[in-house]
Amino acid sequence: MNIWDLIVALILGVVEGLTEFAPVSSTGHMIIVDDMLLKSKDILGSQEVANTFKVVIQLGSIMAVVIVFWSRLWSLVGVNIGNSPKTESPDSRLKLTHVIIGLIPAAIFGFAFEDFIDKYLFRVETVLVGLVAGALLMILADWKTKRAEKENYHYEGNSLDEVSYKQAFLIGLFQCIALWPGFSRSGATISGGVLMGLKYRAAADFTFIMAVPIMFGASAVSLLKKMDVLTVDVIPFFAIGFISAFLFSWLSIRFFLALISRIKLLPFAIYRIVLAIILGIVYISVM
């Protein structure tokens, strides 16, 4: 591989890292940057190897979440590391069961419709629909928040430790919407959390924690099925993509969590609509 090939791996890792957990749809960005512009499949030799690369860099993003929420993830199983809250403490209600309840709906729907989604929904047209529909959901969540603030609404979930089992399950239902490519898992679940009475930061924290098992499990299974494509000559490409995805995911998660309570979801919704317009124009121009 030449220098340009490795730069492509770096760029794709950066795109994955910056978009995987922000509510902007990493799928939409990958279609523009990779499928339409950089075309990693030409570098790696086939679409199958390129798809495996995307699984590998997604694992890099998941590792970043694990690092950011390291203490909190251990606290879910009752292990106190550093200043993490113990799950048995009356001040800390979030438990592993909350996460499991939140994962059940998407796990069922994903298993039932996996083949249909892979066969019919991974197209530019459906991603465009997902981008716009997700933006409208985010605008609705912001609108409800502003209306609630005017009415002095008391939030049921001011912090991550106040997420109820009912809220966890309903957020899980919103996560099912994200099975539609372009909708964005974080966009759907954060919006759902806000609509269910959580504050933005609590909804974001729960979204990221819930993403670890479902994304790691899906990526691990997919990778195990495609281990035969991991030949020696593609390892540098995969390694650079993985490392850059990890680093930029870590940065974007920290930045997003510090920002979300102040700017809320509207700027991301506007960005998604602009992205959908750009994607539509690019798609039409290459047809």
From TrEMBL:
Its main location: membrane. GO terms for molecular function: undecaprenyl-diphosphatase activity. Its EC number is 3.6.1.27. It catalyses: di-trans,octa-cis-undecaprenyl diphosphate + H2O = di-trans,octa-cis-undecaprenyl phosphate + phosphate + H(+). It is a multi-pass membrane protein. Keywords: Antibiotic resistance, Cell membrane, Cell shape, Cell wall biogenesis/degradation, Hydrolase, Membrane, Peptidoglycan synthesis, Transmembrane, Transmembrane helix. InterPro entries: UppP (IPR003824). The chain crosses the membrane at residues 53-74, 94-113, 120-143, 203-223, 235-257, 269-286. It is found in: Cell membrane. GO terms for cellular component: plasma membrane. The keyword Signal does not apply. GO terms for biological process: cell wall organization; peptidoglycan biosynthetic process; regulation of cell shape; response to antibiotic. HAMAP family: Undec_diphosphatase. Catalyzes the dephosphorylation of undecaprenyl diphosphate (UPP). Confers resistance to bacitracin. Bacitracin is thought to be involved in the inhibition of peptidoglycan synthesis by sequestering undecaprenyl diphosphate, thereby reducing the pool of lipid carrier available. Belongs to the UppP family. This is Undecaprenyl-diphosphatase.
